[in-house]
Amino acid sequence: MGGEKKATIVEIGPRDGFQNVKEFIPTEIKSKVVHGLIQAGLTKIQLTSFISPKAIPQMRDAAQLCDEFISSFPNIDFSVLVPNAFGADRAVESGVKEINYVISVSEEHNMSNVRRSVTDSFADLASVREKYPDLIINLDASMSFGCPFQGEITCRQLDEYVKRAAEIGVDAVNLCDTIGVAVPSQVEDTLGRLFQSYPDMAFDIHIHDTRNMGILNSYVALQYGVRSVQTTLGGLGGCPFAPGASGNTATEDLVYMLNKMEWKTNVDFEKLMDVARFLKHNVNGNFSGHQVAI
């Protein structure tokens, strides 16, 4: 890569990091974490999820968090996760301008996760795109690299998935290694094929750190030219509907490496660590980040 090396990091801890914490995190604590992330220089933050509180009670204060942050910080790109058109409606009503709509590449996991077929999910997504033409829609492609129910995800299966997304007109496809099975050669091969087949599509990456591949696979993806990398403070998180999905790639670990390698992240590592320590002392979660453990 020539010229300045830039890395866009999307902090998804307030959503993916918190959703696996069983004890409800007070909204005030969540708010302090988000404020700290902003002060550390993060400009892209996934704030919450508009999902049924019966499924994930941790997200029951979604509207409250959106009311607090979205209009108050116009220079921050806040996104939220939604599983269906109803969630998208609630997000838009709360002032959200960017959503991540989740559809699994695996039929079996999609049924487990959102209780509908992949085809039905894409039809629902198409209705959201038509209803909200100005809404930024990123498609979270869960199980892009492997599935606990199906096993291997075929090249053809992923290609057809991205083709559907392109036809609907999503703004980006986020390739999610939901259970952390990917290896660098697989990331390279997948991105190389998709970049060639869909040159007008933006791709993001989301790597779980189940087998300690998170930093390496994220770095490979950045070198390949993905638009952004998703991480969580402290390495918190995982998919509650995917057996074996442990924590995410830790934001502080990735920022440490990239800053030391003179990539431009615009993130202040020491301020980020202050937020990580606050989080560890105030949230009873399974932290996997190496830096926050120091």
Structural class: alpha/beta
Unreliable residue runs: none
What is the chains' assembly state? single chain
Rg, nearest Å:
17 Å
Overall number of domains:
1
Helix content: 40-55%
The biggest sheet amounts to: 8 strands, parallel
CATH homologous superfamily caption: Aldolase class I
What separation lies between the terminal Cα atoms? 33 Å
What is the string of helix and strand elements? EHHEHEHEHHEHEHEHEHH
The CATH first-level class comes to Alpha Beta
What is the number of helices?
A: 11
**How many distinct beta strands?**
8
What spatial form do the alpha-carbon principal axes imply? globular
CATH topology: TIM Barrel
Strand composition percent: 15-25%
CATH architecture: Alpha-Beta Barrel
Task: Summarize model confidence as the mean pLDDT.
Answer: 94
List the strand order in the largest sheet: 1-8-7-6-5-4-3-2
